[in-house]
Specification:
This protein has 122 residues and is α+β, with helices and mostly antiparallel strands. The protein is built from three helices and six strands; from the N terminus they run ββαββββαα. The relative contact order is 0.23.
Length: 122
């Protein structure tokens, strides 16, 4: 299950809870790829960091994963934080509906096992 776990309004981050081990990246790949699908966009690497964006994103959200915080979404200053929160909650609902009874790992293996975001950094 995916859900919005909290925010840091000072830093303008949204933290996403996912059920698997925080050190596993499968849920991050699912989260970003499902946002890409929702927007009919393409995932791109943000220059200079291991951050990702999605073309066609009117909110210009930046997605980050690390083993300390898991999935984090950075909200730019020009983007309304409430709109970003609502969008991320909606995305969580969409993903959870698609997961059904499957674990995130099962869903990843079925849909995204060849769609790593990290292949550029091996």
């Amino acid at each position: 299950m995916f859900s919005v776990d909290g925010t840091s309004s000072t830093e303008r981050w949204i933290f996403i809870y996912a059920e698997q081990n925080i050190e596993d990246t499968e849920e991050f790949v699912i989260f970003v790829r499902e946002y890409e699908l929702l927007l009919s966009g393409e995932v791109f690497l943000v220059p200079g960091d291991l951050h990702f964006g999605v073309t066609n994103d009117p909110l210009k959200l930046i997605f980050q994963w690390d083993s300390l915080f898991g999935i984090s979404v950075i909200v730019p200053d020009e983007t309304d934080m409430n709109t970003a929160m609502k969008t991320m909650r909606n995305l969580c609902d969409i993903i959870n509906e698609k997961l059904g009874d499957k674990t995130a790992y099962e869903y990843f293996m079925q849909n995204y096992k060849d769609a790593s975001l990290f292949e550029h950094h091996n």
